[in-house]
Amino acid sequence: MLRKRTGVKTYPVSGGCVTERDKTQLKFGEFSWLQNMRGDHPGLRQRKGCNQLHTTAITGTPGIVNMYQYRSVRGAEQKLFAQLDNDDLWAQDTTNLKIPDKRTGAFGSLTHTGSSGSIPASFSNVKDHMLYSNGIDQHQVYCGDSSLVDKFIVFDGGAAPAAIPDNGRDYSLEVRDTVDATKVAILDSLNTYAAFECIFIKTKVPANSLTFDVSAANGTASVISVWYWNGTAWTEASAGFSDGTTSGGATLAIDGAITWTSPGSAEQEKYMYGTNGFWYQLRVTVQLDAEVEIASVKFNDTAPHPLRNIWDGVDVYGVEAQVYVNADTAYEIYGAAAVDVGDLTTSDIIYFAAASKIEGIYVSPGSLPNVATAPAFTISYWNGTAWVSVGTVVDGTNGLQNAGWLTFPRQDAQTRELNTSKYQAYWYKIVLDAAVDADVTLAMSYMPYYDVSDFGSSGKTNAVWKDRACYSFDQYGPYVYVSKTGAPLVLNGSDYGILRAGDGRYNPIKAQRNFVNELMVWQEEIGSEGGCVTIFEGYSPTTFGKLVLSSEIGTMNAKSVVVVDGVMTRTRTESRIKTIAFFLSRVGVCSTDGRTIHIVSNDIRNYFDPQQDECINIAYKDKMWIGYDSAEEVVRIGLVTGSSTTCNTFPVFDVVDGTWSFDTPAQDMLCMAEVSADSGATESNVGTVQLGGGDDDGFIYRLNNGVNDYNGSVETAIDTYIDIEVNVDGEYFVTDEMAMRVKAQTAGDLDLTFYKNGVQVGTKSISMIAGATNETSRRHRFYLNITAHHITIRIQNDTIDEPLAIYDVGIGTKIWEGA
User: Fold this and answer.
1) What are the tens digits of pLDDT across the range 375-431?
2) Average pLDDT, whole number, for the chain?
3) Above 80 in pLDDT, residue 78?
4) Which three-class secondary structure state does DSSP give residue 623?
5) Any idea what DSSP says for residue 634?
6) 686 and 82 in contact (C-beta within 8 Å)?
7) Average pLDDT, stretch 644-656?
8) What are phi and psi of 741, to 5 degrees?
9) How far apart are CA 513 and CA 503, in angstroms?
10) Considering all CA atoms of the chain, what is the largest pairwise distance in Å, rounded to the nearest integer?
11) Cα–Cα distance between 64 and 58 in angstroms, integer?
12) How far apart are CA 500 and CA 536, in angstroms?
């Protein structure tokens, strides 16, 4: 006997699929598979396709491992960077990226040649510095093609500039102001270096080009040259030199760029005018016109530079000083702020201790300077076995008659203990060639220099937090090095900090992210204990503190974490909009609000269950990825599952209703990124564009574009379908009727395939074409009459080039009583 179980009333189609349970165990109407569809809440529609961003594959058809769009706000520059699986970094200007336009030719050009063995890179941007860390090379810093210079000073003295100049007209604000045309740097009658005149320009990183916007042109024939600091002296940048501001033999006559070949590591930072950085000296051969003005100056950084640890410019007091008085054969020990050197003779010695290697000592004699014969200084350092001269000492104190710097070349100094000191320090030996007046007391501080390789030779990850750069290195796995505020090349001084992630284990850091007002750090999952997730809070290095969110869960790589703003979260009593971090772990897809961690992949847990053939292959953890598609409000994921060696399974998590589906792109993707773009000819207010990186085909793809997918230049239809499971608690039943409503199309059919306990028993095709002109939907109702205890109904789009949208589905059943 039959009795009615369900009517044929239609219900809005919504939700996702469940793959972790056998389909015979799913509830009536649940989906066992949802492929290439997106939710409209309610309703389901076919996802959009993907198309090429460029028409020609990158040479060698590499895989696109990771992508990032650099944006220079002050320089109004945009570049899309693509990390390739051959370890190189390519870039293309995206200032005028339009949709749906396709770039003709191959993508961009090589901008950095990476070392073999790179991992998915971290990218960040702080104050127009792009940070790039590929896990094998030192961290890289890039400032773009048109960043504004930091300093612009016109020197006009009675003698050549001192080692640390103390005079000059500062036009830095004027050349950095690109809005007010009245603010200019004045180079009227700028004379030659022989006449003790020149220009000093400072940049954030080593430059190889300076671009001048000339507002009042020079007309006198004169040649300009650029000089950089090599650590000992100013050196002319003659290799590859070209002056694009020249017209009729006169430099600074037109807008243009002065370029040269960067000397690389031969160039060193220099302390001048109260700031430390990369300084350039510009000299002219003939005095310029009576009126020459520069509106702005930008520098070019055509390729990333290895990270350097630049001194913050604040002199550091010495650890202590010891004065050896030869007549007494005894040491006098002083704090570095007050060292009594009165009546010292040429046979006496000042020993000065520093915590770092140094290239200068600041000496202030206070109110009682030396007024007798000005002594010259001989300074030596300890090289591990003997005292060795530092070389030429430039005396800015005029023989201790005034406060000033004693500067000298860098050295390979080694630490040691001295006399009664029982600590290791860098000791410097100072000998004077003339006696010093009585009652002279010195305050002594120093100019340190640092080697970033002390932290490690490979940059693993980076992030930006509170206007600071945060780095991890290979040498000390769980440590995060936090730069000075707004100075990503300064890892020293009182505004610099070191954080230790995790619970004490040395698991390497795999990813860092700025999370609302905090820094979230993920460590690698190793062994049975797994990894860690740590969140850091605070306002400065002295107030930074940490909270370990998990001592078991970690993540896989730098592209396996994404932070999503505006996620609606619900509890039994309330709904809230939160910022959520989603990330991949070997135990599943996780989410955290910064206080607790949840596994959101229970419905597809079979892909993270080692007992299942389709489980992820953790040996290829560096290939797996996660990204947020803001256009569809979904998290897209690439997993390496089963026996595959590359991403072959692509789950999609709908953050609106917390459900899962799967994509089957024609080309396997290794990453995704969102970039900003200008409006195209046929689409306005595009704003954000989603991109995907192809696997081993040399193409970047525009996601959410068109109806079909592309694999290289081959167009492929998107196979879209839903598998609906019909179970009635294990009872035998008869499917009575089925009804469904779809969006009306200009062409196309839906194929329905019916499976009785896994065996196909019938098909049906229904039209998606409107029944009458201007109708927006098409409804069908029909009889099925299939008897079974489990039925699967597959609803599939059978027409290439036609989208699909399903609004409602209804299935009527009757149960066989007693069967």
Assistant:
1) 999 999 999 999 999 999 999 999 999 999 999 999 999 999 999 888 999 999 999
2) 92
3) yes
4) helix
5) E
6) no
7) 96
8) -125, 130
9) 19
10) 123
11) 10
12) 10
Show the tokens assigned to 332.
């006098």
Q: How far apart are CA 498 and CA 507, in angstroms?
A: 16
Give the Cα separation of 517 and 465 in Å (integer). Answer: 8
Of the listed ranges 365-369, 525-529, 554-558, the least confidently predicted one is 365-369
Q: Using CA atoms, how far apart are residues 686 and 97, in angstroms rounded to an integer?
A: 11
CA 177, distance to chain mean position in Å, is 27
For 415-482, the DSSP string reads: -B--TT--S-BEEEEEEESS---TT-EEEEEEEE---GGGT-SSEEEEEEETTEEEEEESSSTTEEEE
Residue at token pair 């095709």: 765
Token representation of residue 624: 């797996």
**What pLDDT is attached to residue 103?**
75
231-278 pLDDT per residue, tens: 999 999 999 999 999 999 999 999 999 999 999 889 999 999 999 999
What pLDDT, in 10s, does the model give residues 472-501? 999 999 999 999 999 999 999 999 999 999
Q: Are 281 and 234 in contact (CB under 8 A)?
A: yes
Q: What span, in angstroms and rounded, lies between the C-alpha atoms of 805 and 785?
A: 26
pLDDT of residue 364 exceeding 70: yes
Q: Does the structure show a pLDDT above 60 at 129? A: yes
- Give the integer Cα–Cα distance in Å for 627 and 620: 18
Query: Residue 484 has which token pair?
Result: 């000075």
Question: Could you tell me if 663 and 27 are in contact, meaning their C-beta atoms sit under 8 angstroms apart?
Answer: no
| pLDDT score, position 683 | 44
> Token pair for residue 498?
């070191």
Query: What domains appear along the chain, each with residue ranges and CATH number?
Result: 2-46+720-816 (2.60.120.260), 48-117+559-717 (no CATH), 121-135+450-555 (no CATH), 147-300 (2.60.120.260), 316-433 (2.60.120)
Dist. CA 77–CA 38, nearest whole Å: 34
Residue 733 has pLDDT above 90, yes or no: no
E strands within 678-748? Answer: 687-694, 700-702, 709-711, 714-716, 721-727, 733-743
Model confidence, pTM: 0.93
Residue 558 near residue 470, CB atoms below 8 Å: no
pLDDT tier at 145, thresholds 50, 70, 90? confident
The proportion of the chain whose per-residue pLDDT surpasses 90, expressed as a percent, equals 80
Of 499-503, 546-550, 683-687, 745-749, minimum mean pLDDT range: 683-687
Question: In whole angstroms, what is the distance from residue 103 CA to residue 97 CA?
Answer: 8
Among residues 245, 251, 260, the alpha carbon closest in space to that of 287 is found at 251
DSSP string spanning 262-308? --GGG---EEETTEEEEEEEEEESSPPPS--EEEEEEEE--S-EE--
Whether 272 and 250 have beta carbons less than 8 Å apart is answered as no
* Amino acid (1-letter code) at residue 217: A
Other Cβ atoms within 10 Å of 139 Cβ, number: 29
- What is the DSSP code string of 203-240? ESS--SEEEEEEEE---S-B-EEEEEE-SSSEEE--TT
Burial class (CB within 10 angstroms; exposed 0-12, middle 13-18, buried 19+) of 355: middle
Residue 238: both structure tokens together: 């003659």
Between the CA of residue 216 and those of 175, 191, 225, what are the distances in Å? 13, 17, 20
State how far the Cα of 18 lies from the Cα of 33, in Å rounded to an integer: 7
Compute the distance between CA of residue 730 and CA of residue 364 in angstroms, rounded to an integer: 92
Looking from the CA of 167 toward its CB, the CA atoms found within 13 Å total: 9
Q: Is 763 exposed, middle or buried (0-12, 13-18, 19+ CB in 10 A)?
A: exposed
